[in-house]
Amino acid sequence: MTRDHVLNVEGLTLGYGERTVIDRLDLLVPPGRVSAIVGANACGKSTLLRSMSRLLRPRTGQVLLDGEQVHRLPAKELARTLGLLPQAPTAPEGITVSDLVGRGRNPHQRLLSRWSAEDDAAVAAALEATDTVGLADRPVDELSGGQRQRVWIAMALAQQTDVLLLDEPTTYLDVSHQVEVLDLLTDLNRTRGTTIVMVLHDLNLAARYADHLVALADGRLHAAGEPHAVLTEENVRAVFGLDCSVITDPVSGRPLMLPIGRHHVAAPAH
């Protein structure tokens, strides 16, 4: 089992140039749980994740991991605890799948240390978990978008961190592979206790798989909590500007959002 780490942000303001994207945000990530960040396009979801992984420095406020500012931690030390799968990662030209996944072991390599049986086992387990064993010897740039996404997830798994941040991990995946990836992340959380924070566009998948939802609107925290408390008709209207009906998912028992468009109206109650 992993160690529970406390990841939180205090008074966080982020931006690019003169544009403010996140404004004075306070957020506590529940340790050992699965959290999903949701919100409309350009509301700051990816920007928040970048700052939580120290890729973006705050204008004001701080990101804390076990009470220490992430921007002050040595890079390799942080990478042994916290892993990130960004939204659009790029691989070196010509690199094979096995070599790319093996790079997830870099934070665990010490000066003058050799590749170990433990490293081999971590890479093999990551390839197996993501159904990419058959791709191990292929160049990454020859793969389809969905295959590449699963390979990047394998690299993140090989890193074996206690906290894993993923920016839209289901991008490029068909629905069956979306479910497989989210099942895999749930397994990782339940068997190893990994704290998982992911940005998801699909509200219903977020509500089904996350223990904790974080809804952003215009760079601010609009709501946070268990799915039934966050995925409400009022919150969907406020965050997305969308009318909807929220019912109980007959499969998971979680809330299920049914959008209401101009060409569809809610059926009258009986």
TrEMBL record:
Query: Which SMART domains is this protein grouped with?
Result: AAA
The ABC transporter domain sits at: 7-243
Can you say where in the cell this protein is located?
Answer: Cell membrane
Question: Where does it primarily localize?
Answer: membrane
How does the protein's chain sit in the membrane according to the entry?
Answer: Peripheral membrane protein
Q: Do you know which CDD domains this protein is assigned to?
A: ABC_Iron-Siderophores_B12_Hemin
SUPFAM superfamilies for this protein: P-loop containing nucleoside triphosphate hydrolases (SSF52540)
Q: What's one Pfam family here?
A: ABC_tran
Instruction: Give the molecular function GO annotations.
Output: ATP binding
Instruction: State the protein's name.
Output: ABC transporter ATP-binding protein
Domain of life (superkingdom): Bacteria
Q: What keywords does the record list, in alphabetical order?
A: ATP-binding, Cell membrane, Ion transport, Iron, Iron transport, Membrane, Nucleotide-binding, Transport
